[in-house]
Amino acid sequence: MAEMWINMGPQHPMTHGLWNLRIKVDGETIVDAEPEVGYLHRGIEKLCEDRTYTQIIPIADRLCYGSSLTWSHLYCLTVEDLMGIEVPPRAEYIRVAAIEMQRIASHLMWLAAYAVDLGLMLGFIYGMRDREVFIDLLQALSGSRLTYNFPRIGGVAHDVPPNFERDSLRACAFMEKKLDEYEDIYEGSKVFMLRNEGVGLLRKSDAMNLGVTGPPLRASGVKYDLRKDMPYSVYPEMDFEPVTHKDGDCYARFKVRMDEMRESCKIIRQAVTKMPKGKWRIVAPRNAPAGTGLGRVEDPRGEGVMYVVGDGTDKPYRLKIRSPIFVTVSAAPKMLIGYKVADVVAIMGGLDMCIGETDR
Amino acid sequence: MAVASAPRFDAQRFGVIYRSTPRQCDVLLVNGPVSKKLKPALRRLYDQMPEPKWVIAMGECAISGGPFYSSYSVVPGVDQFIPVDIYIPGCPARPEALIDGILKLQKMIKANKKGLLTGK
Amino acid sequence: MTDERGKTNTEQDEGLEKAPSRIDENPEERIIRALLDSFPTAVTDFKKLGAGIVRASVERRDLFKTCKFLRDSQGFEHLSMITAVEYESKFELVYHITSYQHRLLLELITTTPKEDPSVDSVSAIWGGANWQERESYDLMGIKFNNHPKLERILLPKDFMYHPLRKDFKG
Fold it and tell me: Which DSSP helix (H) or strand (E) runs through C54?
């Protein structure tokens, strides 16, 4: 049968964001695949060399607008490593609580888009409605719905609003009940399970070698979560378990994210109840010393790393950003070859692509 | 933008339906920074839409380049190569602002039945 | 020749693990000792940067051998990030390599002269390096020898410059 290359994208309902997927098909079976990115390249790394350290915080937010708090937090961690600053404990607890809320909101956004792509419109409606609970909490905390500009170098921008603890605990209880309901809906849907089980297998050795990180790595059986294995901030004091699954198919990636939302609820409860009193910010110096700083976090999509080189002035000499999805997408051909064209949506959707951070 | 069709804001009650192919649409909603790599594809999309057509530029990046205005790979504003009818400010633009912009467009279309900048 | 030395080192390592001495108890010391034993002249400048983070410098021509040794016998399964930095007189490439089993991060720095920014590709060792090297080529102009497909990835194919270089202005 004749083989041919098909272009899916850059403007296509499957691609959330702007990227192109070229697949080579033999009838209905995929024989080869080649993702193409770069349609949203904004030149952020070059832009950061002209801005002061504080002016880069809103730009770091816009790296991935789906989970923007993790990126500005990562940037602040990196610069604090360069400058050698110790952040006050109250600020660390506020940051952790906000990051876990952001993680739940990001996973719910992924779930909504994933469900509607696979034909389950109910998933979109429920997912977006329940995400509003956490977006409201984050809006009360920082003033904005999507790009918060909340962490600062040396702490956070301001203190928590009144009744934050009560509202967070209510939101966690609400979410845990909803997660049980979601599992019933999704696992009871025959179409959803058929489209996900056994599709897009990624072996453990391939996942480790190809640089896949985050939920796809843990769904292939590798128990590695940066929050537990090389912890940062106040994660050593939080009691939670990284979620793994041994199958490595689309259903495993779905299950890992659902269980991660439960673990995040646990962390939020601990963070808001154990928050100590005190300062929430210290003023950082304007100029950074010459040297390097490194920061690593567990983004909802994988391992995010930033490396900054300072040269004694108030602007960075070089800022390098490692985006988890950039490397995970390069591993996509391994997951696609051998499956049918109709499986592309489930496989690529399961990777939770956010093009903002891929292209920077 | 995705949230505007979600239950809380619900753009569909104003008669807005999202479609993913340019051949069936009346309004092109441009959202986010436009890179130089994307510029020819976006112009082709605009040309594929049938008349009468309108364009909404949503968010600071589509209006003027936003925080990335000085970057080497961002076009400073989508109105450099496509005529725009409605500008929705915000970074990011709130869902309420998007619905407000759509309602303003509906009023504009009723008032001037010919369609704005295209003049046909 | 390197492989034999690597093998001997693994046996040594196992011997060490059976009877841990005071110095080699923590994983950072163990990796420093392993690298010093196998590549006494090539890998230099060790520095412990924090809990589980070690920095070292390596010569450009020994980069491939060192990386192969790290993946095969020291359990560094994952390449996190490849950074290219331009200084006045040289280019510097920083490799961040992670070991899942030992919970270690190794920061390996290699330099190239300004006129000839090229280095061996490690994408045969870690598949995850493929796109990261293409990005360094695209934005900074570093050439990677033996790369399967060294093309531009983020910028249009006919773009003529390498934007992250210091002499490129907006």
Answer: strand C53-58
Chain B contact for C155 (CB, 8 A cutoff): yes
Q: Over the stretch A127-179, which tens digit does the pLDDT of each residue have?
A: 888 888 899 989 999 888 888 889 999 889 888 998 898 999 999 999 999 99
Answer whether residue A94 is part of any domain: yes
Q: Which fold has domain C27-145?
A: Beta Polymerase; domain 2 (3.30.460)
Average pLDDT of the residues in A79-85? 89
Q: Does A111 touch chain B (CB under 8 A)?
A: no
Of the candidates C14, C82, C74, the residue with the CA atom closest to the CA atom of residue C38: C74
Among B68, B78, B94, pick the best mutation site for testing chain A contact (most A Cβ within 10 A): B68
Which residue of chain C comes nearest to B70, CA vs CA? C170
Structural domain includes residue A302: yes
Count of domains observed in chain A: 1
How many Cα neighbours within 13 Å face the side chain of B40? 2
Which chain A positions have a beta carbon within 8 Å of B76's beta carbon?
A: none
d(CA B57, CA B55): 7
Residue C6: pLDDT band with limits 50, 70, 90: very low
Binary contact (C80, A305; C-beta < 8 A): yes
pLDDT-derived band at A11, boundaries 50, 70, 90: low
Q: Which residue has the tokens 């329940």?
A: A130
What range does the domain containing A211 cover?
43-324
Residues 6 or more apart from A254 whose CB is under 8 A from it? A114, A186, A196, A350
The CATH number of the domain holding residue A95 is 1.10.645.10
Check: complex ipTM more than 0.85: yes
Q: Read off the pLDDT of each residue in B87-104 and give the average, rounded to a whole number.
A: 88
Q: Classify residue A123: in a domain, yes or no.
A: yes
**Does an H or E element contain A319, and which?**
strand A318-322
C27 and B CB contact within 8 Å:
no
Beta strand pairing call for C53-58 and C104-113:
parallel
Yes or no, beta carbons of B41 and A145 under 8 Å apart: no
Mean pLDDT to the nearest integer, C82-99: 90
Of all residues in chain A, the one with the smallest CA distance to B35 is: A40
Please answer whether residues A115 and A191 qualify as being in contact, where contact means their C-beta atoms are separated by less than 8 angstroms.
Answer: no
